[in-house]
Amino acid sequence: MRRVLIVAVSAVFLPLSGCDAINGLFNSEPQITLDPGPVCPATGVLSDAASVTKLRPGTSPAMTRAADIAFQALMSQAQLDCNYDRTANTLVVNVKFAVRASRGPALTGADPQLPFFVAIVDADNNVLVKNVYNSDPQMSGRPSATYTETVSNFPVPLAMDRRPSDYEILTGFQLTPDELAYNRLPRVVPTPQAAMR
Question: pLDDT tens digit string along 113-167?
Fold first, then answer.
């Protein structure tokens, strides 16, 4: 048993001893890569503002029927592309998110504008910046569509002792009081009935 082990170990070292290329690998300094950590803030969509429903003019949010809906849209969580200058401690962000939109039976005329906001919140939940953008739905003549919205070169004001991970970028639709009230209405989920025997 011992003899077989010695022969096996010798067989492994014989080919290695004559190969300079392999010896060079073992003699070189190890490459160490340091992870600089995240350079982008966290992202989130405000739950009350993740969707928008445009109703027929004069419709009460609490008394809405399906026939009163003119337009609806839902926003996905944003993806960020960040340019962080560690020396100057400055951050510029490109914000991109998807919108799924559909026309409703009460729509007359052109599609409505869907204004949305991009806001920066610090670790204490203080809103530092909030910019509102006007947006036209990109429906391309279809009754429903999914498209992408982009905000480029959005500056994030970093405090001297803060880093990008100390902040959060929030997005959402800029809602009217009626649209916000509609989003806050409790939604009744139908209970499945037992199968008839």
Answer: 999 999 999 989 999 999 999 999 999 889 999 999 999 999 998 888 888 988 9
Q: Per the domain annotation, does 136 fall within a domain?
A: yes
Per the DSSP assignment, residues forming a β-bridge with 90 are 85
The number of CA neighbours under 13 Å toward the Cβ of 195 is: 1
Partnered with residue 140 across adjacent β-strands are none
DSSP state of 196: P
Separation of alpha carbons 21 and 43, rounded Å: 48
30, part of any domain: no
Count: domains in the chain: 1
List, in sequence order, the alpha helices (H) in the chain: 2-17, 20-27, 177-183
Contact 111, 68 (CB under 8 A): no
Q: Is the pTM of this model over 0.90?
A: no
CATH number at residue 79: 2.60.40
